[in-house]
């Protein structure tokens, strides 16, 4: 029984490997550069930090609803899921393989990125920063080649720093309430700008600014799902089955309009409650406290319907 | 180096640049050899928030839509992304990603993109501007970084003095042009003699249409990032079904 896929389990609580196992069709996953090859960070020992045999990233291929997919998953519990030289380059290599259709006739047309990251790993900051940039370039090239890249965000580390930027470079974004997406973390903003700008100890405020519900309501995510591996799987299957939207001028012009409009409508906001009030939501101050069921009902009603990413 | 000094040195065929209240620069210029260029930039050491980012991406996309295919030169003297609650609430990650994607699209549409870093650029602002161009040139005054050492000390809980020591022997984490260039981030570092800039720009512009991202290979050649290219290559190999080595 111990090998049973915990489909109904929490995405938040699961390890990267458990997420991959539960997301994909049973027993369909093959890992590339797996832990048995012991490709560990060449830098962490200098800081007297423990290393991991997979450097905190799992990459490979499998099947989702019978269709071949590539998948990369960050483990937020190892070094905060950060982008280092090895962990970042594993994702770069996977995206380049997808771009090239390198697996032949059965080549996956979908890449799933399971982001769970605080951003660049500061102990190897320069390599991590470059990896983020290379991932962004590789996503653009893969999408240009007709590949759909789907970001799944619902882990404890969220998707911060370069991870937040990478998320918004993907074709589609699936988020749960725990999927905080941002560039600068609240602590960094507080340290640099003062507590009156952002009180990082105010948990409710942090969730309202960066959390999955706010991202979804403002158009920063395409699907809002409950915190279940099964729910992420269903969303990824539905999005992966769609035809890949071409990565072209038309699409980015549409995104330009979408983001310009957001600034025109909500640009004076400093808290999500202002945005929710403007949307006409009942009791906007309660959005953060709503039950998952109530929010999913709301989410269906208020679904942002755009294809501009 | 000021923007005017840099522009005079680069664009010996002439230039007309305008700068707005957020430090966003736009204009047209002509190289020494008479190549027409579109110029865009974020200057004056201003942070990159949602308002500046959306203006920059508009300039880039309008140029791509214009269809004349002139190379795009991006001038960069910024700092980090703007650190503000409002910008994060509004989805700064989407605005920075959109700018980065717009520059990538320009490349894919055959518009050469060249970054010119002559001041600061850190973290997400560095990623969305300078690092999103095909070829990045740095001139004296360029101070790229991921995070400053005091902040790294805070996050890693290591004493600043120890980090400073380590930075001398372990450049993989330390801020600064030499360290970033060694990783492959910067294609060319130009020296302080500005008289050569116009010719070097023309040399870059006359390069072939090769736009593949080879920064990991460059990092290996320069011995500043020894493993990245190899790891990416091996994953790609296993993904394409080749036997494990």
TrEMBL record, chain A:
Molecular functions (GO terms): lyase activity
Keywords, in A-Z order: Lyase, Transferase
EC numbers for this chain: 4.1.1.88
Span of domain CoA carboxyltransferase N-terminal: 1-248
Presence of keyword Zinc: no
InterPro entries recorded: AcCoA_carboxyl_beta, ClpP/crotonase-like_dom_sf, COA_CT_N, Malonate_beta
SUPFAM superfamilies for the chain: ClpP/crotonase
The protein's name in its UniProt record: Biotin-independent malonate decarboxylase subunit beta
Species: Rhizosaccharibacter radicis
TrEMBL record, chain B:
One Pfam assignment: MdcE
Domain of life: Bacteria
Name this protein carries in UniProt: Biotin-independent malonate decarboxylase subunit gamma
């Amino acid at each position: 029984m111990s090998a049973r896929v915990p489909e109904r389990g929490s995405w938040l609580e699961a390890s990267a490997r458990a997420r991959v196992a539960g997301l994909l069709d049973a027993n369909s996953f093959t890992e590339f550069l797996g832990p048995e090859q012991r490709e560990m960070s060449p830098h962490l020992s200098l800081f007297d930090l423990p290393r991991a045999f997979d450097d905190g990233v799992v990459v490979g291929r499998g099947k989702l609803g019978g269709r071949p997919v590539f998948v990369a998953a960050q483990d937020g519990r190892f070094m905060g899921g950060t982008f280092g030289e090895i962990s970042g380059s594993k994702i770069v290599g996977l995206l380049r393989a997808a771009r090239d259709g390198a697996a032949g006739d059965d080549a996956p047309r979908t890449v799933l990125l399971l982001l769970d990251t605080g951003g660049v790993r500061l102990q190897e900051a320069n390599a991590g920063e470059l990896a983020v940039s290379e991932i962004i370039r590789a996503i653009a090239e893969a999408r240009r080649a007709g590949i759909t890249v789907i970001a799944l965000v619902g882990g404890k580390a969220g998707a911060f720093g370069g991870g937040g930027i990478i998320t918004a470079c993907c074709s589609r974004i699936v988020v749960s309430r725990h999927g905080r997406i941002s560039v600068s973390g609240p602590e960094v903003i507080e340290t640099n700008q003062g507590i009156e700008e952002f009180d990082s100890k105010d948990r409710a405020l942090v969730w309202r600014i960066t959390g999955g519900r706010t991202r979804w309501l403002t158009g920063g995510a395409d699907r809002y799902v409950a915190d279940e591996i099964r729910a992420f799987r269903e969303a990824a299957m539905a999005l992966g089955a769609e035809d890949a939207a071409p990565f072209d001028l038309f699409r980015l012009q549409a995104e330009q309009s979408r983001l310009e409009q957001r600034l025109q409508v909500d640009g004076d906001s400093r808290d999500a409650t202002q945005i929710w009030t403007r949307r006409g939501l009942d009791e906007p101050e309660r959005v953060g406290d709503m039950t998952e069921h109530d929010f999913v009902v709301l989410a269906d009603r208020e679904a942002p319907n755009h294809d501009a990413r | 180096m000021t923007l005017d000094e840099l522009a005079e040195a680069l664009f010996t065929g002439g230039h007309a640049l305008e700068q707005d209240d957020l430090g966003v620069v736009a204009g047209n210029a002509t190289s020494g050899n008479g190549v027409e260029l579109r110029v865009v930039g974020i200057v004056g050491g201003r942070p990159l928030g949602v308002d500046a980012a959306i203006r920059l991406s508009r300039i880039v996309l309008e140029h791509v839509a214009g269809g004349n295919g002139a190379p795009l030169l991006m001038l960069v003297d910024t700092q980090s992304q703007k650190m503000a609650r409002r910008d994060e609430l509004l989805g700064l990650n989407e605005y920075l990603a959109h700018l980065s994607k717009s520059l990538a699209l320009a490349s894919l549409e055959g518009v050469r993109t060249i970054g010119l870093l002559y001041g600061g650029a850190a973290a997400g602002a560095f990623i969305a501007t300078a690092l999103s161009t095909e070829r990045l040139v740095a001139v004296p005054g360029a101070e790229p970084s991921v995070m400053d050492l005091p902040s790294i000390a805070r996050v890693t809980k290591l004493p600043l003095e120890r980090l400073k020591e380590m930075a001398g022997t372990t450049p993989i984490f330390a801020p600064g042009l030499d360290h970033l260039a060694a990783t492959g981030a910067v294609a060319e570092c130009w020296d302080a003699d500005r008289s050569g800039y116009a010719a070097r720009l023309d040399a870059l512009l006359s390069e072939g249409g090769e736009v593949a991202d080879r920064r990991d290979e460059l990092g290996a050649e320069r011995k500043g990032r020894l493993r990245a290219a190899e790891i990416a290559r091996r994953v790609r190999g296993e993904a394409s079904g080749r036997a494990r080595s």
